[in-house]
Design brief:
Order of helices and strands: EHEEHEHHHEHEEHEEHEEHEHHHH
Number of strands: 12
Shape: globular
CATH superfamily of one domain: NAD(P)-binding Rossmann-like Domain
Radius of gyration: 20 Å
Strand order of the largest sheet: 3-2-1-4-5-6-10
CATH architecture of one domain: 3-Layer(aba) Sandwich
Bound molecules: nicotinamide-adenine-dinucleotide, 2'deoxy-thymidine-5'-diphospho-alpha-D-glucose
Mean pLDDT: 97
Number of helices: 13
Strand content: 15-25%
Low-confidence stretches: none
Length: about 350
């Protein structure tokens, strides 16, 4: 039985993907992750006794190591999640984003190209390299502009999105120039279990429960298009199964919401599920703080292509997904406590100063 190789499978989306893949498929997973601050093996603890989950701690930029792993495991596909993924961190320190998202993706592509070139004809034509990317490469939308299609111009605005855009271009070039059977997915904002609490939704849940401020950037009217992480994972599985090599598929849930509405929804769910001892609403903890530099105003994904070509659509609505997510954080205080290490506290201090 052949295997797939996943990069970044100990992060938020990657770990959800690996868990869902092992539940849905008999194919083994080789999970390659450098275990940066964002990688967490605890996300994968339910696979501890699964011999078909093979975890390897390695950097995607380590060409020799990646080439050896490809030769050793002979995967039928590579699904590339590994990245530096947090916009605010890219503003404080862009270099790691250039290194992993651009140099790392380039080295991974080179290793995969060499491995793929050596395959026999049948395996070569069925092999797939799936590159997981973001809607942020398209830039910011005006309030009434149509949602991003796959043909939208690239206008990345942060060091993070610029580094992801560069990696997307490399993937496109490897298909066009070398014929590597690539697939690229550009997805909107995910939320759900195992989301590191430096991103909006988990940060708000964790801060609310800890009695801290809920820091909303600027006027809180920036719009994001939210998708439950399990729906992103099912879309990737579908693209891997039936996507056309060389193609790009936008993934989203047709679910645009301003940030302040997200925060108020979380507060209302917590008021219902874990009321504050003093009877007040968690929304009294909302604090408007300084805006993110270069903050994109609006993202929205047009997911028609993946729906029409591959029949994919999300299973969860925002209402069902956010309720499950808030409940997951309430049910998993140990996971939260373990990720709140010294380096996490240092990040809060750097980013939020007094508001944290
Ligand atoms: P994450 O930050 O939670 O996880 C990234 C994982 O990659 C971590 O496990 C980390 O240890 C690993 N990693 C980082 N650098 C590495 C390296 N050099 N070599 C090997 N492993 C390394 O990220 P995420 O939110 O799960 O995002 C996964 C992918 O999906 C990224 O490519 C991101 O750009 C993309 N994406 C994320 C979202 C979102 O809302 N989170 C939306 C669309 C696309
Ligand atoms: O759009 C897809 C992208 O979504 C992914 O490519 C990124 O990897 C992922 O991190 C996410 O980027 P965002 O910048 O949109 O996500 P974040 O959770 O950091 O912020 C969401 C919105 O909330 C954004 O408008 C900024 C705002 N925000 C965020 C934080 C952390 C706040 O108002 N306060 C906060 O404390």
């Amino acid at each position: 039985m052949s295997k797939i190789l996943v990069t970044g499978g100990a992060g938020f989306i990657g770990s959800n993907f690996v868990l869902d893949w092992r539940a849905a498929s008999s194919q083994a997973v080789v999970n390659v992750d450098a275990l940066t601050y964002a990688g967490n093996l605890e996300n994968l603890s339910s696979l501890a006794d699964d011999p078909d989950h093979i975890f390897v701690q390695a950097d995607i930029a380590d060409s020799e190591r990646i080439s050896t792993l490809l030769q050793q495991h002979q995967p039928s596909a590579v699904v590339h999640f590994a990245a530096e993924s947090h916009v605010d961190r890219s503003i404080h320190g862009p270099e790691a984003f250039i290194q992993t998202n651009i140099v790392g993706t380039f080295r991974l592509l080179e290793a995969v190209r060499s491995y793929w070139s050596s395959l026999a004809a049948e395996r070569k034509s069925s092999f797939r390299y799936l590159h997981v990317s973001t809607d942020e490469v398209y830039g910011s939308l005006a309030p009434s502009a149509a949602a991003f299609t796959e043909k939208h111009t690239y206008e990345p605005n942060s060091p993070y999105s610029a580094s992801k855009a560069a990696s997307d271009h490399l993937v496109r070039a490897y298909h066009h120039t070398y014929g590597l059977p690539t697939l690229t997915t550009n997805c909107s904002n995910n939320y759900g279990p195992y989301h590191f609490p430096e991103k909006l939704i988990p940060l708000m849940i964790v801060n609310a429960l800890a009695g801290k401020h809920l820091p909303v950037y600027g006027d809180g009217m920036q719009i994001r298009d939210w998708l439950y992480v399990k729906d992103h994972c099912s879309a990737i599985r579908r693209v891997l199964e039936a996507g056309r090599p060389g193609e790009v598929y936008n993934i989203g849930g047709w679910n645009e919401k301003p940030n302040i509405e997200i925060v108020k929804t979380i507060c209302a769910l917590l008021d219902e599920l874990r009321p504050r001892a003093d009877g007040k609403s968690y929304s009294t903890q909302i604090t408007y703080v300084q805006d993110r530099p270069g903050h994109d105003r609006r993202y929205a994904i047009d997911a028609s292509k993946i729906h029409q070509e591959l029949g994919w659509k999300p299973a969860d609505t925002f209402d069902s997904g956010i309720r499950k997510t808030v409940q997951w954080y309430l049910d998993n205080p140990d996971w939260v406590a373990h990720v709140q290490s010294g380096s996490y506290r240092d990040w809060l201090q750097k980013q939020y100063k007094d508001a944290a």
